[in-house]
Amino acid sequence: MNRERTAQVTPPESSAESPAVRYENLPLVVLAGRPNVGKSTLFNRLIGKRRAITDPQPGVTRDPIEEECTLRGTDKKVLLVDTGGFRLEREGLDELVVARALAYIERSDLVLFMVDVSEITPEDEEFAALLRLYADKLMLVVNKADSPERDALVWTHAQWGFEPVFFVSAEHNRNIDELAEVIAAHLDFSHVREVALEKADIRIAIMGKPNTGKSTLLNALVGQERSIVSAEPGTTRDIVESRFLYKGRGISVLDTAGIRRKKKVTDNVEYYSVVRSIAVVNRADVVILLIDAKEGLSEQDKKIAAFAVEAGRPVVLALSKWDTMPTMKNAFEAARDRLRFFFGQMAYAPVVAISAKEGQGIDRLMGTVVSLYGKANKVIETSRLNQAVAAWMGATPPPAGPRTHFKLRYAVQAFVNPQRFIFFVTRPEAVTESYRSFLKNKIRLEFGLDGIPIQLELRASRKDRQWG
User: Fold this and answer.
1) pLDDT band for position 274 (50/70/90)?
2) Peptide bond into 398 cis (omega under 30)
3) Which end of the chain is more exposed for a tag (fewer CB within 10 A), N or C?
4) Contacts of 122 (CB under 8 A, 6+ apart)
5) Mean pLDDT of all residues in the chain?
6) Over 90: is that where the pLDDT of 187 sits?
7) 114 - beta bridge partners?
8) How many CA atoms lie within 13 A of 67 on its CB side?
9) 6-185 has which CATH code?
10) Is residue 398 within 8 Å of 432, Cβ to Cβ?
11) Could you count the other beta carbons within 10 Å of the beta carbon of residue 177?
12) Are 214 and 290 a contacting pair, CB within 8 Å?
């Protein structure tokens, strides 16, 4: 079993000064099946909130969605994953969607193989055959059994020989509590531990396109040849993990396969390499994005950064192979400003010049990583947040037009690493992207969160939640 999964939670508002915690080694439970069998509906039902998009149109879920979940009726926590649908006929991104789902299944502790009670399709048959490899950790979940009258249909699916078989209706909340209890009974929680974030290892994902020096950086950090170092692009096929101490602090560093442009990703091994590279972002606390100093910013670099930002992970932009650059006054400042000009979406991210081969800039890089980790896990008192928001509104009121006018009623910090804030607004649809950016920048400046991404969620306000 893979014992490297973590999840983080913030303390409740009443204990804002208490340290946040990380739950390590959570069992990984994966929802898998063809499109439109209700995986996302069950995912939302189990976690108790609407996180995954649900729609009658097949294939809405593409990227796997991870969420820590306390199983209903128990005190057991798992890491729940909603995956994209398995298809026989594939086009566009379908191949990568299936590859990502299979990668999660491979390292899971329990697979919930979901099917529709009303029919068995060729895709179900094909997926069932493929999943026989994982029969010892698989549970067949027959969904859309909305009433006892439909229960008899469940046993049509028993032909595959998977046990146990469980019938539910995710939409109507039928047998969900019983399912949660069965899931808990099939998992080993003996390795789960709770660690205060200030004592936990900082997890770093080293990312970048092929041949930017990722493995060389890993070796420089850990002080040994842990990864194969080669001038041939794509040498690293899997995730290599090592641990070292930096000024007494435990650091776990992940070296990932290089991410190529889609048209160059052709074989199955490379599909899995890309999948693992993207999935590791969710395991990391901070992402180091290596950019070749000579070649400059590429479209691949932007896409890699987008994966990290979507997950809410802080990113350090590291200009790699700096020793090969001409020695000129203000060379770094010019390179940094050029990077920020062409990559405006990441203008908040810190930039560091390094040469892993020569050992230059490594200490500054690691100091930046530790600083970002502290900011990403900073807990902000709700009262202080709302005092600040009220001041911002007074100094820079929302637009006054009939279509753009809204009022901000209340704000809370919902999560750390990623730093996620919820604003209760009278008309969420009226809040423009520019005003969202304004709020994010204000949060960074006011609370010392510079250098990290801010996730902002807008919800319709309730009358009893407002500034007084």
Assistant:
1) low
2) no
3) C
4) 88
5) 80
6) yes
7) 141
8) 20
9) 3.40.50.300
10) no
11) 14
12) yes
One of 3.30.300.20, 2.10.70.10, 3.40.50.300, 3.40.1190.20 is the CATH number of 201-376, namely: 3.40.50.300
334: burial class by Cβ within 10 Å (0-12, 13-18, 19+)? exposed
Q: What is the pLDDT of residue 190?
A: 93
Q: pLDDT class for 6, splitting at 50, 70, 90?
A: very low
Please report which helix (H) or strand (E) contains residue 105, including its range. Answer: helix 94-106
Contact 304, 290 (CB under 8 A): no
Contacts of 425 (CB under 8 A, 6+ apart): 406, 407, 408, 409, 431, 458, 459, 460, 461
CA distance 146 to 267: 42
pLDDT at 153: 72
How much is the average pLDDT of 74-82? Answer: 91
Asked if 376 and 417 count as a contact pair (C-beta separation under 8 A), the reply is yes
Report residue 107 as tokens. Answer: 């390292």
Query: Where in the chain are the domains?
Result: 6-185, 201-376, 382-460
In degrees, to the nearest 5, what angle opens at C-alpha 386 toward C-alphas 384 and 389? 115
Left, alpha or beta for 265 (phi > 0: left; psi -120 to 50: alpha)?
beta
Length of the chain: 468
The answer to whether the CB of 117 falls within 8 A of the CB of 34 is: no
Which residues, 6 or more positions from 123, have their beta carbon under 8 angstroms from its beta carbon?
A: 34, 86, 87, 88
For 345, residues 6+ apart whose C-beta sits below 8 A from its C-beta are: 302, 305, 309
What is the pTM for the complete model shown? 0.63
Cβ atoms 360, 322 nearer than 8 A: yes
pLDDT bin (cut points 50, 70, 90) of residue 140 is very high
For residue 253, give the nearest of 346, 348, 365, 144 by alpha carbon. Answer: 365
What are the residues whose beta carbons fall under 8 Å from the beta carbon of 213, sequence distance 6 or more?
A: 290, 292, 320, 321, 356, 357
69, 111, 142, 184 from 162: Cα distances, Å: 25, 11, 12, 18
Q: Where are the beta strands (DSSP E) in 188-283?
A: 193-196, 202-207, 240-246, 249-255
Check residue 12 and report its DSSP letter. P
Question: Token pair for residue 425?
Answer: 């607004």
Q: Is the peptide bond before 164 cis (omega within 30 degrees of 0)?
A: yes
Question: Is-contact 164 141, C-beta < 8 A?
Answer: no
Cα dist from 283 to 6, 8, 61, 166, 241, whole Å: 7, 11, 20, 31, 12
Domain 201-376 and domain 382-460 have a common topology? no
382-460: which CATH topology?
GMP Synthetase; Chain A, domain 3 (3.30.300)
Distances (CA, A) of 65 to 25, 62, 331: 18, 9, 41
